[in-house]
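User: Hi! I have a protein structure encoded as tokens and I'd like to know what sequence might fold into it. I'm fairly new to this, so please keep things simple.
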């Protein structure tokens, strides 16, 4: 185990940014009292995001998006099983010639965005980052930049999209207490939406742009100035 901590102290998105900044490869496991999620990283890029309630059926997503028909999907899957092929369904579909590589990668990316959005209301539980002895390899990795991923999730949250399953209700004051910026009432009114703190889930690069005090903090006489420390 390389890294471990409480989500109440370091949000999922903050941990992702830390791992990306160091170009880490490994598995970030998230657990709370209700469920478990896993994020796979390679050189600081996200390769897959797995949450228990998400739709992991790539074929079904391709049918829904209109890239392939249900009948075509069924024939391809049955042919694959007949030849006893145990390949990733995305590779099977790509080899069939019915769906091109980019369409499959785009669907996988969209799934990663949706699954990361599902993690935006995780405020309790623990995280654990490990590097397995044998790296997990994905046949068609989307290789998503973490900052881009978090910006996209922040945009969707701001537009009103919410996780499909609500976590336990927590008082707004307690939610905002996790934010290192020391949220003011104005910030809470602006960023606390339906029990989700948009400010806390906002990528650091955006947050620093919005929250840039014009004046330096003042200190009481005899009080030492404490410079900002890194969150981890």
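Assistant: Happy to help. Inverse folding works backwards from shape to sequence: for each of the 232 positions I chose a residue that suits the local structure. Here it is:
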């Amino acid at each position: 185990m390389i890294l471990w901590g409480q989500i109440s102290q370091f949000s999922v998105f903050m941990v992702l940014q830390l791992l990306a900044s160091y170009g880490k490869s490994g598995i970030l496991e998230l657990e709370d009292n209700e469920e478990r999620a896993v994020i796979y990283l390679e050189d600081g890029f996200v390769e897959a995001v797995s949450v228990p309630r998400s739709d992991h059926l790539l074929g079904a997503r391709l049918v829904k998006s209109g890239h392939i028909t249900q009948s075509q999907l069924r024939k391809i899957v049955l042919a694959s099983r007949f030849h006893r092929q145990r390949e990733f369904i995305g590779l099977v579909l790509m080899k069939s010639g019915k769906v091109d590589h980019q369409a499959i990668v785009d669907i996988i990316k969209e799934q990663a965005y949706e699954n990361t959005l599902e993690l935006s209301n995780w405020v309790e539980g623990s995280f654990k980052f490990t590097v397995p002895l044998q790296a997990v390899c994905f046949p068609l990795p989307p290789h998503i930049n973490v900052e881009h991923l978090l910006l996209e999730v922040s945009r969707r949250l701001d537009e009103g999209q919410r996780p499909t399953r609500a976590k336990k209700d927590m008082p707004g004051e307690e939610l905002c207490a996790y934010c290192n910026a020391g949220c003011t009432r104005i910030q809470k009114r602006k960023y606390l939406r339906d029990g989700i703190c948009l400010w806390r889930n906002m990528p650091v690069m955006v947050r620093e742009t919005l929250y840039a005090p014009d004046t330096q903090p003042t200190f009481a006489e005899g009080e030492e100035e404490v410079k900002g420390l890194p969150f981890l």
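A useful reference point when you look it over: The CA atoms of residues 2 and 49 lie 19 Å apart. Feel free to ask if any position seems puzzling.
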